Amino acid sequence: MATATRIPPEVLARYEPVIGLEVHVQLLTASKIFCGCSTSFGAPPNSNVCPVCLGLPGALPVLNRKAVEFAALAALALGCQVRETSSFARKNYFYPDLPKGYQISQYDQPLAEHGAIEITSGEGRKKVGITRLHLEEDAGKSLHDGFAESATSTCLDLNRAGTPLAEIVSEPEISSPDEAFEYLTRLKEIILFTGVSDCNMEEGSLRCDANVSVRRKGAKEFGAKVEVKNVNSFRFIREALAYEIERQVEALESGEKVVQETRLYHAAEGKTFSMRSKEQAHDYRYFPDPDLQPLVVDAAWQAEIRKQLPELPEALRARLVAQYGITEYDAGVLSASRSLAQQFEAAARSAKNPKRVANLVQSELMGRLKARDLSIEQSPITMRGVAMSADLAEAGTISSKMLKDLYDHAFATGEDFAAVYEREKPQQLSDASAIEKVIEDVMAANPQQVEQYRAGKTTVKAFFVGQVMKATKGQANPAMVNELLDKKLAG
Amino acid sequence: MKVKEKDVQHVAALANLELTAEESMRMLQDLNAVLDHIDMLNEVDTANVAPMAFVAADITALRSDETRASLPRDEALSNAPEAGMADGRRAFFKVPKVIER
């Protein structure tokens, strides 16, 4: 990544970045927030529009109950207090993809306030406050390029206009690009667990703007704040912030002032650029929307919504560690999504020994995934496959060596464990008389060890197990070998 | 409360209006006349009255999350002065090139 400079670390260290993030997530309702048009992504342009979302005169908005429930559920998951009474306001600005000339949003009475997300910061943990979570409508999409007439005109697709959004505003309590990255990662994880948004950044269902300023360490006053927009991945936000912090420090060090403005991040160059808009603070002239009465989410409704709150990532990880004795790292991998955690737990529960499932995930699955740079969702061996292998190992039907071979096979062919097992099923020797025959041969060839065993040195048994397995090329049923050896060695 | 010429200019800019000096003067007079009129409300003692944003003492209506048929696209675009094409059909609202103000 291109950095602004050359600023010596000791100079940077004299400054303290102050970062606040605004995250918009699209809520997964079937219909728009104020009308019955579909919210489906990728529909033909301007096919999901009606008088309400087109802003035609006389059309009136009617609030979608589900959008309220989804936003409130996200708010509760983020530790916010949901206001019993909130209200809608008009945010006035002109842009062609905003047909009404105002966006219906919430201003002085947002749906929810006073939440927090706990993040890892360096060695420690810290809480980043969430100022507010409010409901608003999305704008349409402007297509500036790709048409014959693009040099002189812009095309508008208003399908997205009116899609429900929850805007989540953090306190300016984030003090580094890494913390911003961590905050966003945790936020996305929590929202995904609630299921109210798919948080797909490519499709724009999660978008983030960052406010960043720097000040001398220990200063009370905030520096002039720059808003960074147009950043479409968490990694780019981290890079954009790092660039922006250096740029601002450089300006201050050379005696310049940081201009309060909006800047766009260009990922290819790794730099932010001024939008060169007129240097006037936004003046949105918010006022209560007379078309919408106050929204009341009373205690009973809040309780109903709270009931839908799933176990959240933090609590889930702690429980996985405690319940299955796995490491925090592996618990983190297994809780990458709610469905993965559910699959794991279902597999663990269905298996004879849940801990063995956890152990196999940890000892056999993770390493193979890592070696091939696969995410756990891409694993050829599903959780069900892991459970099956755990049961086979538990029953002694396959040895740990065979299990490893079968896993290698599955990863080589991209098949799940069950398919590989069915085909490659080791021709296991479970014929008692045949195993007994092998045992007798081994004993005859090693009379000294037989003596030792009978003299009380029972640890020699491991030697015999090894010899029998070797003689059968690892195909003897381990449980039967154990049992028969005990009998034979006892004499 | 009185507004000044610079307030008129500010509001005009926000409304994307370009006013001549003459129009600006007239707006200034008109706005101040309206504000004078509204100022009469200040004569009422509201010390013990809670602020009111909504006239009807009601809470908002809610609808269930069900989709309804949207407008046929031709109809949606029927008032558009210009339309952008996709697959040989009118598909987009077309506006002059957007330049961030």
Automatic annotation (TrEMBL), chain A:
Residues 342-489 form the Asn/Gln amidotransferase domain. It holds the Pfam family GatB_N. It comes from Candidatus Korobacter versatilis. Heterotrimer of A, B and C subunits. Belongs to the GatB/GatE family. GatB subfamily. It catalyses: L-glutamyl-tRNA(Gln) + L-glutamine + ATP + H2O = L-glutaminyl-tRNA(Gln) + L-glutamate + ADP + phosphate + H(+); L-aspartyl-tRNA(Asn) + L-glutamine + ATP + H2O = L-asparaginyl-tRNA(Asn) + L-glutamate + ADP + phosphate + 2 H(+). Keywords: ATP-binding, Ligase, Nucleotide-binding, Protein biosynthesis. It comes from the Bacteria. SUPFAM superfamilies: GatB/YqeY motif, Glutamine synthetase/guanido kinase. NCBIfam families: gatB (TIGR00133), PRK05477.1-2 (NF004012), PRK05477.1-4 (NF004014). Its EC number is 6.3.5.-. This is Aspartyl/glutamyl-tRNA(Asn/Gln) amidotransferase subunit B. GO terms for biological process: glutaminyl-tRNAGln biosynthesis via transamidation; translation. One of its GO terms (molecular function) is glutaminyl-tRNA synthase (glutamine-hydrolyzing) activity. Transmembrane segments: none annotated. Allows the formation of correctly charged Asn-tRNA(Asn) or Gln-tRNA(Gln) through the transamidation of misacylated Asp-tRNA(Asn) or Glu-tRNA(Gln) in organisms which lack either or both of asparaginyl-tRNA or glutaminyl-tRNA synthetases. The reaction takes place in the presence of glutamine and ATP through an activated phospho-Asp-tRNA(Asn) or phospho-Glu-tRNA(Gln).
UniProtKB/TrEMBL annotation, chain B:
It catalyses: L-aspartyl-tRNA(Asn) + L-glutamine + ATP + H2O = L-asparaginyl-tRNA(Asn) + L-glutamate + ADP + phosphate + 2 H(+); L-glutamyl-tRNA(Gln) + L-glutamine + ATP + H2O = L-glutaminyl-tRNA(Gln) + L-glutamate + ADP + phosphate + H(+). Heterotrimer of A, B and C subunits. The keyword Ligase applies. Allows the formation of correctly charged Asn-tRNA(Asn) or Gln-tRNA(Gln) through the transamidation of misacylated Asp-tRNA(Asn) or Glu-tRNA(Gln) in organisms which lack either or both of asparaginyl-tRNA or glutaminyl-tRNA synthetases. The reaction takes place in the presence of glutamine and ATP through an activated phospho-Asp-tRNA(Asn) or phospho-Glu-tRNA(Gln). This is Aspartyl/glutamyl-tRNA(Asn/Gln) amidotransferase subunit C. Its EC number is 6.3.5.-. GO terms for biological process: glutaminyl-tRNAGln biosynthesis via transamidation; regulation of translational fidelity; translation. Keywords: ATP-binding, Ligase, Nucleotide-binding, Protein biosynthesis. The gene is gatC. InterPro entries: Asp/Glu-ADT_sf_sub_c (IPR036113), GatC (IPR003837). It comes from Candidatus Korobacter versatilis. Belongs to the GatC family. GO terms for molecular function: ATP binding; glutaminyl-tRNA synthase (glutamine-hydrolyzing) activity.
